[in-house]
TrEMBL record:
Organism: Lactuca saligna (Willowleaf lettuce)
Chain ranges of the Amidase domain: 73-460
Record flagged with keyword Translocase: no
UniProt-listed SMART domains: TPR
Residue stretches of each TPR repeat: 493-526, 527-560, 561-594
Protein name, entry field: Amidase domain-containing protein
Keyword field contains Transmembrane: yes
Cross-referenced InterPro entries: Amidase_dom, AS_sf, TPR-like_helical_dom_sf, TPR_rpt
Transmembrane segments: 20-36
Length: 609
């Protein structure tokens, strides 16, 4: 009998053996588990948060310049750390422009960029160079050579670009602030996607000497920060601003049409800004406008850039024409700067960036003067609109971040909507700050303030002035359930009070205290909030806190009967009968027929006598 026949015979004899089936079952299960585990680990590895969130290309330390000895004041940036994008020259290091072939074909820098030197002189420490979109092209922040930095707020989504690593380093609290470049959105986009502050200064006011250019008519050095006071200090250092300036009234203008292009909820944004400006001195109530139509009427040079089939009087078409002019200007200047290197070196480029650069290098530019004409007209139009006291409020970006490794086809329409918003400050040269406004549908959203070219201190002062109040309103509004959403009339603090009342009725005393506390943070002058919190404290047996809240309520409203009753109850509970008696007497003066006060007065008279 052959060996094959013997083996077949053995299989037949063992098929009916249950032990064989157990072995087979365990083996198959093991294979399935191993396959599933391998797949799980691949997926986990794909979206795993790398060390330092993948923000840095290289780490080094540049110490600050020697500080002046006491009694001289500390330098304004003393103790702060920062990172720089891969476009800033650092002496004895090669600026890589986000691309290994660029780094390979260029020499070490002989000098450090002026902006980096300024930060070191004023006390900050530089800790490294960050990842960016190659050659400052791209809006997603993805880099096929160095890896894509992980968005700390949304790890499976892009961080935004071009200055992605700098934004991530700040959002992940790896540094106190960071700098990057913003040509057509390189700082504003990632700031919005990562939920931090991002500042694009007025064009030309911060030195770009020692910074690799993409398009010098549009390039700016931008700042990322989590803390508005840090942004303010760094801005003052780089802009060399006069620390003292006469305070101006602020005129808020909301671009209603741009919120229609965006997923940022307009009603909540306008509500939040309105409530904050109501409570701060020197702010006018927001006005509303259609910025697209305004640009259409005041920038005649856009006629060279619109589709012949479209109506330029339509504001959206005007914004599309403006973004077309912006992209053509960028491509023209990029080609002038880098065409020779691209054609000589033929660098390896990521697919998305490769398309942008191919379009820039292959473009034929027939009407170059028209690009600069639009830029000049846009600056004049925004000067006329904003003057020296206006703040234009717009969504920073149109859409929520794309998922990592999204299909290229999604980017075309995505970028079209994105550039319609970003082109306003880019082409006018105005300064713009993207401010985190919480989340919408689990995605970070940013709302931008724009001020006229040269009004950088005015804008930074405004952000510093409003930021805490804005975040308080954002947090209050974000926490509201749909049943208590904004109705356009009720203040967010009142809505929190209603949530506290609901918790109180449900006998959830601690939760009630929490809601009343949040309401007080938004409005410290409302006696009812303190009085209601006192009621919850009484239920919890926190008599001292209840007494303090009632005293505060009475100081705000001398006729608050409930505050006298609740303070009397708190004092009686800790055996301060005489003081309690006085509170109930006050209540009776205000409401002679109050049964609670009458009963308490009668009871306490016996105890006191």
């Amino acid at each position: 009998m052959s060996l094959k026949a013997i083996n077949l015979e053995r299989v037949k004899n063992n098929v009916s053996n249950p032990k064989v089936w157990i072995v087979i079952g365990v083996s198959v299960a093991g294979i399935l588990i191993l396959t599933a585990e391998t797949r799980r680990r691949r997926l986990k590895g794909r979206y795993a948060i790398r060390e330092d969130y993948g923000a840095f290309i290289e780490r080094f330390e540049l110490l600050p310049f020697p500080q002046p000895p006491p009694p001289a004041a500390k330098q304004p940036l003393s103790g702060l750390t920062f990172a720089v994008s891969d476009v800033f020259d650092v002496k004895e290091y090669v600026s890589g422009f986000g691309n290994p072939d660029w780094k390979r074909t260029h020499e070490e820098a002989g000098k450090t960029a002026i902006v980096v030197t300024a930060l070191l002189k004023d006390g900050a420490t530089c800790v490294g160079r960050t990842v960016m979109d190659e050659l400052s092209f791209g809006t997603t922040g993805e880099n096929s050579h160095y890896g894509t930095p992980t968005n700390p707020a949304m790890p499976s989504y892009v961080p935004g670009g071009s200055s992605s690593g700098s934004s991530v380093a700040v959002a992940a609290e790896l540094v106190d602030f960071a700098i990057g470049t913003d040509t057509i959105g390189g700082v504003r986009i990632p700031a919005s996607f990562c939920g931090i502050l991002g500042f694009r200064p007025s064009h030309g006011v911060v030195s770009t000497i020692g910074v690799l250019p993409n398009s010098q008519s549009l390039d700016t050095v931008g700042i990322f920060a989590r803390d508005p006071s840090v942004l303010h200090r760094v801005g003052h250092v780089l802009l060399r601003l006069n620390p003292v300036e006469p305070r101006r009234t602020r005129r808020i203008v909301v671009a209603d049409d741009l919120f229609q292009l965006s997923k940022v909820p307009q009603q909540k944004t306008v509500y939040i800004v309105s409530k904050v400006t109501e409570k701060l001195s020197g702010y006018q109530q927001p006005k509303h406008m259609n910025i697209g139509q305004y640009i259409s009427s005041n920038v005649p040079g856009l006629k060279y850039f619109h589709n012949e089939e479209s109506n330029l009087q339509n504001g959206t078409n005007a914004l599309k024409a403006l973004s077309s002019a912006m992209l053509l200007l960028q491509r023209y200047e990029f080609k002038t700067n880098h065409e020779e290197w691209i054609k000589t070196v033929k660098p390896r480029l990521g697919s998305d960036v490769s398309d942008h650069i191919h379009a820039a290098i292959s473009a034929a530019h027939e009407n170059i003067k028209a690009y600069y004409k639009v830029r000049t007209e846009m600056r004049a139009a925004l000067r006329s609109l904003l003057k020296d006291d206006g703040i234009l409020v717009i969504p920073t970006v149109a859409d929520t971040p794309l998922k990592l490794d999204s299909k290229k086809g999604l980017l075309t329409e995505y970028n079209e909507r994105l550039f319609a918003l970003l082109s306003i400050a880019t082409m006018s040269g105005c300064c713009q700050v993207s401010i985190p406004f919480g989340k919408h549908e689990d995605s970070c959203i940013g709302v931008s303030f724009i001020a006229f070219h040269g009004s950088d201190k005015f804008l930074l002062d405004t952000v510093l002035d409003m930021y805490q109040s804005l975040q308080g309103q954002v947090n209050a509004v974000t926490s509201l359930p749909p049943s208590l959403d904004l109705n356009g009339n009720m203040d967010a603090s009142e809505l929190l009070k209603e949530k506290g009342n609901a918790a109180y009725k449900g006998r959830q005393w601690n939760k009630a205290v929490s809601y009343y506390t949040d309401a007080i943070k938004l409005d410290e002058s409302n006696a009812t909030f303190y009085c209601n919190r006192a009621a919850a404290y009484l239920e919890l047996g926190c008599f001292q806190q209840a007494e303090e809240d009632c005293s505060k309520a009475i100081s705000l409203d001398k006729k608050n009967v409930k505050a006298y009753l609740r303070r009397g109850t708190a004092r009686e509970s800790v055996l301060y009968y005489k003081e309690a008696l006085q509170d109930f007497k006050h209540a009776l003066v205000l409401e002679p027929q109050n049964k609670v006060a009458k009963g308490a007065e009668k009871r306490l008279r016996k105890l006191v006598s």
